[in-house]
Amino acid sequence: SAVISQKPSRDICQRGTSLTIQCQVDSQVTMMFWYRQQPGQSLTLIATANQGSEATYESGFVIDKFPISRPNLTFSTLTVSNMSPEDSSIYLCSAPFGTSGRVRTYEQYFGPGTRLTVT
Amino acid sequence: QKEVEQNSGPLSVPEGAIASLNCTYSDRVSQSFFWYRQYSGKSPELIMSIYSNGDKEDGRFTAQLNKASQYVSLLIRDSQPSDSATYLCASSNQAGTALIFGKGTTLSVSS
């Protein structure tokens, strides 16, 4: 498995402000992913962060609201901009890691998450 | 729309029993399937991955995949109260790509 860390672990923010969440992986990975988990819900993919290119956003998520940086193969940031109470969620980053064996497969591991509350 | 469906539960089993969690998926090109365990307030923890039809066993956990029926299951033998959590089923259609998650099944194991 891998070690993925996130900062901050939690924050309480006022509406209209922005928060940048950092994600650090202990080894180089090609792709990193950002998910959102709203209260009582499952995980929804926000975007795929590719090193050296623009992030790829899922339907319903836009770059102006969730700008992403990926400056190198071990680090990414997600910014939640102009926050509203509806943005209160847990934000999770993840990365796929190759497994050993005859057939190359990947397993995806998650960081501990950032619990965001917008008041 | 690619979907992964799970019964939200709660699924309640007594300690020592077998817990059976089920999942179906809509995208026939899905290649990889995963079961995650998520305790309240924590991030998902990978417990099983399966890529080929059949069974895969790891300790008390057995994952089963039937691609013809687009069906994935997770069996937990000798269930323990510490297994009480939400279990998320996920799929991906290409190695190393993002996952599509089901809504999760809440498991409660009573002592």
Identify the overall geometry of chain B: globular
- Radius of gyration of chain A equals 14 Å
Output the structural class of chain A.
Answer: mainly beta
Radius of gyration of chain B: 13 Å
Main sheet specs of chain B: 6 strands, mixed
- Oligomer class: heterodimer
The helix/strand order of chain B is EEEEEEEEEEE
Helix content of chain B: under 10%
Question: Would you report the number of β strands of chain A?
Answer: 11
* Distinct helical segment count of chain A: 0
Most extensive chain interface and residues per partner: A-B, 27 and 22 residues
SSE inventory with pairings:
The complex is a heterodimer of chains A (119) and B (111).
Chain A (H helix, E strand, L loop, with lengths): L3 E4 L2 E4 L5 E7 L5 E7 L5 E8 L5 E2 L10 E5 L2 E6 L8 E10 L7 E5 L3 E5 L1
Parallel strand pairs in A: 2-11
Antiparallel strand pairs in A: 1-3, 3-8, 4-5, 4-9, 5-6, 7-8, 9-10, 9-11
Chain B lengths: L3 E3 L4 E4 L4 E7 L6 E7 L6 E6 L3 E5 L2 E6 L4 E6 L8 E8 L7 E2 L3 E6 L1
Parallel strand pairs in B: 2-11
Antiparallel strand pairs in B: 1-3, 3-8, 4-5, 4-9, 6-7, 7-8, 9-10, 9-11
